[in-house]
Design goal:
By secondary structure, the chain is an alpha/beta fold. It has 7 helices and 8 strands, in the order E-E-E-H-E-H-E-H-E-H-H-E-H-E-H. Helix content is 24%, strand content 21%. The protein has an 8-stranded mixed β-sheet with strand order 1-2-4-3-5-6-7-8.
Length: 239
C-alpha cells in the first residue's frame, strides 16, 4: 500500500498505481498503458529524500520533490511509466538504510529495476528517462541488460559517475554501488541525450561534460537541480 502523505501531486485518471515485486524489493509505479504494442517511456526517479537537513540518512527515502512525477504524468505518449526506486513510497521489510545511501546503485537495486521494467514492457522498445541518481540506474540498465530493447537514454541533472560526484563534494564513496563509469565505452554505444542545469549545485554541468561528448548535452539556463525544468518538458517529450 502506498504510504500516506505521498500523493501531493495527483496522477491523472489514466495512470494506475501498481506495486511490482522483484526478488528482493517491492517497487512502486504509476502506469499508463493504452497500446501494449507501442513504445514505452519509463521515467526513473532520483535518489529521493536520502538525507535530512542535518546530513543524516532519512528514515524514508520517498522523494519530497515532484519533478519526475509531474514530468511523467504530463507525457501524452501511449505508454508512460513512473518507476520509483527501492524503498520509496512503499513499506518494505527489505529496506535497510544502506539502499538509499551507500548501496543506492547496488547490483540488487539495478536488478530490481530491471525486473520491473521487463515485467512492464517485455520485448517492446523502451526509452528510459532518468533524473539525478535515476540517470545512473538508466545507464546501468542499458549496458548490463542488453535483452531490454532500450532505444534511448535521456537524463535530467543526471549522476552518471558517482565517484566523480562524491569526490567533487568531498563525500564518502558509495561503497557497494555499481558505477556507470566502469562501463563508459559500452555506454558510449547507447543513443543518449543529457540535460544539465547551469545553476545545478548538486550535479554541476562540468561532471556531465567530463563524462559524455558535448554534442550529447543540452544545457538549460538557470535550471537548478530540482527547479527550472518545466519549460523544457515539451522538448523532452519529443525525444
Amino acid at each position: 500500500m502506498i504510504l500516506s502523505g505521498c500523493q501531493s501531486i495527483q496522477p491523472p485518471k489514466e495512470f494506475a498505481y501498481k506495486e511490482i515485486d522483484s526478488p528482493q524489493f517491492k517497487l512502486a509505479s504509476w502506469q499508463k498503458i493504452t497500446d501494449e504494442n507501442a513504445d514505452y517511456r519509463i521515467y526513473i526517479e532520483g535518489d529521493g529524500y536520502a538525507f535530512n537537513a542535518n546530513g543524516q540518512p532519512s528514515r524514508n527515502p520517498t522523494p519530497h520533490g515532484e519533478l519526475v512525477r509531474e514530468l511523467s504524468f504530463n507525457d501524452t505518449a501511449p505508454n508512460v511509466i513512473y518507476l520509483a526506486r527501492p524503498c520509496q513510497f512503499v513499506k518494505d521489510n527489505a529496506c535497510p538504510v544502506k539502499y538509499w545511501t551507500t548501496k543506492r546503485f547496488a547490483p540488487e537495486v539495478v536488478e530490481a529495476e530491471y525486473e520491473a521494467i521487463k515485467k512492464i514492457a517485455g520485448n517492446k522498445n523502451i526509452t528510459l528517462i532518468g533524473f539525478s541518481g535515476g540517470a545512473q540506474i538508466a545507464g546501468l540498465l542499458a549496458v548490463k541488460y542488453t535483452n531490454l530493447k532500450i532505444k534511448k537514454v535521456i537524463t535530467i541533472a543526471g549522476n552518471l559517475d558517482h565517484k566523480a560526484w562524491t569526490d567533487y563534494h568531498k563525500l564518502p564513496p558509495l561503497e557497494g554501488s555499481l558505477n556507470l563509469a566502469d562501463y563508459k565505452e559500452k555506454f558510449a554505444l547507447v543513443e543518449q541525450i543529457h540535460y544539465v542545469g547551469t545553476d545545478d549545485n548538486i550535479i554541476p554541468p562540468e561532471l556531465t561534460q567530463k563524462f559524455v561528448p558535448q554534442d550529447k548535452i543540452i544545457t538549460i539556463k538557470n535550471a537548478t537541480h530540482n527547479n527550472g525544468w518545466q519549460k523544457i518538458f515539451p522538448q523532452i517529450y519529443k525525444q
